[in-house]
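Reopening this ticket.

The earlier resolution said the output was attached, but the attachment link was broken on my side. Pasting everything inline this time so it's all in one place.
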Amino acid sequence: MQFIQTVLRYFMVSKRMFILFILCIIVEVAYAVAAPLSLKYFVDDAFVPKNVDVFVIILSLLIGAGSLNILANLYGDYALGKLSGEVIRKLRLELFDHVQKQSFYFFHRFQVGDLVTRFISDMGGLEKVIRGSFPFTIRESLSILLGLIMLFSIEWKLTLAMLACSTLMFIGPRLLQGRAESANMNYKLAQERFSNTIDEMVKGHKTIKSLHLQGRLKQAAQKNIQELFSFGFRLHVTNSLMERLPLTALLILNGIMLSFGGYLIFQDELTVGGFMAFFTLFMSVGQAVSNLSFLIPNLIESSISFRRVGEILEYKPDVPEASDAVQLPGSLQPIRMEQVSFGYTEDTLQLQEVSLQIEAGSYVAFVGPSGSGKSTALQLLSRFYDPKLGIVSIGGQNLRSVSEASLRRHAVLVTQDTFLFNGTIRENLLLDRTELTEEDLTEAVKQVDMHRVIQSWPNGYDTQVQQGGGTLSGGERQRLSLARALLRRPKLLLLDEVTSALDPAAEAEINRVIERIRRSQTIVSVTHRLASVVGADRIYVFQEGRIVESGTHEELLRSGGLYRSLWDKQHGFHLSHDGLHATVDAERLAQLPFFAGIEPSLLQDISGLFATETCHEGESIVREGEEGNKCYIIVRGKFEILKQLTAGDPTRVAVLQDGDHFGEIALLKDIPRTATVRALVPSVLLSIRREAFAKLLNEHPHIRKTLEQILASRM
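Inline output:
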């Protein structure tokens, strides 16, 4: 088997220990074989002729060999412990290091449960073989080989007869091997699915509770557990058969040996002592063969585990480091993207022929509708992916030729998906930057307006972070993540929707931080909130994977293109400092297609009917199929639109952000909701109820006619 060859390769790294281990095994096996053979000489040369001298000599040899065997056992166990421990250590470290080198595609290919099962279950199976089954296989194989040699020396005809009949011990396991491998693979895949279900339950517990999905998760778990039971039962039955069949064959062989051996004794072709030695030695060899048959299920399981671990080890990083990788200089450097095209899959392109230049020390923003490619461009600047076509460079160096360590020192990416490690707040901020002082720490935290918040906690900076930061609010996690990035003092700071989870006051503070550091660092910010990037040196506007406009805020407003339309959509709202109260101007309502053409004075009355609503991340505002009685306008936030297109989980069909609206049909039509709308970040909306709007329509019947015409054209 391939994994046996690999284990041998690892064992041979420490040749001295491996040789010592093999020598000790040879001594053990030689003694185990010689002990039964001594019966022949005890009976034929000592007991029958009553020769005391021969008896003493044989006994002395056995005692001496036994003492040597004890020493061999001790040294063999020591050598095996060192060897097996080193092999397991190297395998685990190699697997862990290999996973860390992988790019994002790898983590899309393998889920958390898949990797955890390989690290725990599969590596546990390999450890069991390396520490026990593999050495035992060597020992028993040598026992069989030396035992057969001794058996041939005692009586070759009887040995040949036994060998011919011993095929019975291997036919059964061989026939069941395919079934055993299939059962092992199915059981491990079931373990993976159950691990993934547990991972979803733990990570998504808030969403599960808010949507009351405990029953759905329980059904999934019941299905996984039933699969584990079914496949586990098949595996148990198959393994039991593989273990029992050789024992049955061994009983048959014993009967054949007694019959044929007795015949040879009666024919004076075999002495009684010879038969006793042959019988004892045969039982020892038979036991060794039986032991090997017991190991077959473990070896099959381990071969499956090795194959699954090997699948990870053979997976090559999609973003490899060049063999002659260069270092980036320690100063600010210009950044270029030249005719860059990129897609996450072979048949799609998220970026198409994108070219841009970012001057050293400048503040640049990427904006555009959801799915326009702006965040993808930022991922390429971080070299989480390589472009399919074109070049991304920093200081004239193609990122493909830059060492990863140098790039990570130069550039830091802060995303809206924040993650904190299990540990204290202080440890999460400093990480490996142990040379930083307490003043450095507090200064960075003050810049993101978190110092007073942390000081108000009982343990301050020594507060423990649990569940990846799940005990903190989204805004607190986001600000700590930004402070952590500032402490690393990068030359290039990449920000991906970092203010999406913050209230207006916190967002304003972050914008002030950016203003303070913008000349000492190159800053590239991806955002859908245009008010945050008014002061940017240059704004690139993305649409459908291309840059359609670029310039300063004022230049883009004057051009009247996509940027202007996005700006107009997001303005006309007024949000209180704490983010809890919002209003909308009549002029902004006039831009909504279903309010177009209505008199400004009436729009002013309509704006007064809107109420402010806030929601948390993961909260569903409307659900598909329920009664619709409100229309919503997103003042601040991000929502996904989910539709039940097929059986199973609902499908995301759109993403809505600041200035978008939904549910307007509910103002006039009493029909169920056609989709579910769920918040992706903490959000603020304005809503108007059908009942309140109906009173206005009764006072101004002509509005109803206008609305019905507009809505009819949209349905």
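Reporter confirms the inline version is readable. The mean pLDDT is 81. DSSP finds 23 helices and 22 strands in the chain.
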